[in-house]
Amino acid sequence: MCGIFGYVGPRTNGAELVLEGLKALEYRGYDSWGVAAVPLSFRPPSRNPKDKKWIPGQARDDKKTIIVKKKTGKIGGASVADIPASSLALGHTRWATHGGVTQVNAHPHADCSGSIALVHNGIFENYEEIKRALLKKGHRFISETDTEVAVHLIEEYAKKLAFPKAVRRAFMEMKGFNAIIAMRADKQEFVVARNGSPLVVGFGKGENFLASDPAALLPHTKNVHFLEDGEMAIVSPDNVRIIEAKTGHAVSVRIQTLTWSAGQAEKGNYSFFMLKEIYEQPGVIKMITKTGAAQADKLARTVRSSYGTYMVGCGTAAYAGIAGSYLFSKIAHRHVNCAIGSEFGYALDFLGPKSLVIALSQSGETMDLLEGVKKAKTKGARVIALVNVFGSSLYRLSDEPILIGAGPEKAVASTKAFVGILSHLVLLSFALAGEAKKGQKLLHQAAKSVDDVLGEASVKRLKALAAALKDTDHIYVIGRGLSYPASLETALKIKEISYIHAEGMAAGELKHGPLALVTQGTPCIAFLPNDETYGANLAGAMEMGARGGMIVGISYKPHEIFDHFIPVLDAGEATIIPNVVVGQLLAYYLTIEKGLDPDMPRNLAKSVTVK
Ligand code: AGP
């Protein structure tokens, strides 16, 4: 849950390149940031062979210390102009785990001498006992982090071992899921190790890059090597060596080509990524309608031949799985089990080689999901990933990855990836029912309906609703059937970015407890699509209205009990898609009304790579 970026090569603006990389990665963690750079000498490096002091391929720093700049808060308009010219630089955006959000706790961390710097993603589980041993050896610690222990451990081993070996030995002692990048002032190279947390090497011409997310590499290169768990890399300007951390044996480099373009990962004319991504949704649905049918057919065959299908995901992706279970039941008359990624590992004892796990994820790096999927694989289950990021951990772990195809999603609140998953699941359900064409037709309608929700009149209504609700403390959202996951997702979007407490629930559950919370003026949002749930859900809205609730009806037709009516054109079983887009826009405008940043909500990060 952090962004990492590194540069090694002939350019001398290393710190700036890293800062730009960090800006592109900030959605991965944004409570603090830092850049470390090995300054070139006080004179530029010479390639003159007579210059005895200059060793080709090595950075030149007479003082042999690394310059580190760290700050709390978001990067914003920060500059690294005060960092000297450098051809070896490394940076990190933090999402705090061990130690509060302070400048000292921000990464990179340095050893006692200031000549080794390190950034880390993950949790170093046994750091306390190692810290005690290092303290006895005289190491001085200044932060409360687990990360700082790693750099001192490397320093300790580097007294006797070559630097890559010292990093390897230290890394092998670190328990937990971790990725580290270390650099030393006197050598122009990074030593990198990964176990569980994502790291990608980007190949340039006479220069190389490192990042925790391939999207950050796009302005520089599309050629990458995704480090596998247990792999290390030694990265210099014109060489990348991959080794197995356990044995030290060489592993061949597997270059893959990224398919996204740099422009896709930019905000363009939108004020926030979230708004851009919301507006990209009709295009995403249309594209999946066109290209997803063949995949859906193939996946349908796999589902048919499996004995038990499980959909697993976290947060928004878990809600997509719940929606999938209704779609499977309604359209294909098939049962599917849904599980939350973090709970899946506790409920999979009955999986076997004929079981099928469909793992849903935007990032493909969600630790809770990856852990469950790994356990399922040990039971012999087949894993299909419906994932948005090419080459991500889940993509590589699965037996068969299917790309969602939503393009880079950078706002912390997932929007187009969710709608992308839903679109694939609609196609899959109809393919299972042998009615693939009908699925495509409904998705066409859904795209039109989303266009309508995003149109001027609808946005005006949603802005007015947001203005009316912005000071409320609680919002309740109800739905039945496919509108139940729509309610959960709408409530998650609202709480995640506007910080208003919102609860999504099955409307039938109201009278089993939550109705006690509804008093005069309590905002209650009800999804009332044109399906079999309409009557019963309307009854729920009425029960809330009768207790003074302020009723927001999201429906294909108005009703007298609505205090606010948000029309949504019917798209059959795919109506959940435009319904959810209403929820996304409402959450967005509530956040704007409150003057908050929808892209980087407090305490959260885009990629949840810790447990
Ligand atoms: C969605 O708005 C959230 N930020 C979060 O619930 C997210 O969906 C969840 O962390 C799963 O992420 P993934 O899709 O990348 O696996």
UniProtKB/TrEMBL annotation:
It catalyses: D-fructose 6-phosphate + L-glutamine = D-glucosamine 6-phosphate + L-glutamate. Keywords: Aminotransferase, Glutamine amidotransferase, Repeat, Transferase. Residues 299-441, 465-601 form the SIS domain. It comes from the Bacteria. Pfam families: GATase_6, SIS. GO terms for molecular function: carbohydrate derivative binding; glutamine-fructose-6-phosphate transaminase (isomerizing) activity. It is an enzyme of class 2 (transferase). Its EC number is 2.6.1.16. InterPro entries: GATase_2_dom, GFAT, GFAT_N, GlmS/AgaS_SIS, GlmS/FrlB_SIS, Ntn_hydrolases_N, SIS_dom, SIS_dom_sf. One of its GO terms (biological process) is fructose 6-phosphate metabolic process. Residues 2-238 form the Glutamine amidotransferase type-2 domain. PANTHER family: GLUCOSAMINE--FRUCTOSE-6-PHOSPHATE AMINOTRANSFERASE, ISOMERIZING, GLUTAMINE--FRUCTOSE-6-PHOSPHATE TRANSAMINASE (ISOMERIZING). This is Glutamine--fructose-6-phosphate aminotransferase [isomerizing]. It comes from Candidatus Gottesmanbacteria bacterium RIFCSPHIGHO2_01_FULL_46_14.
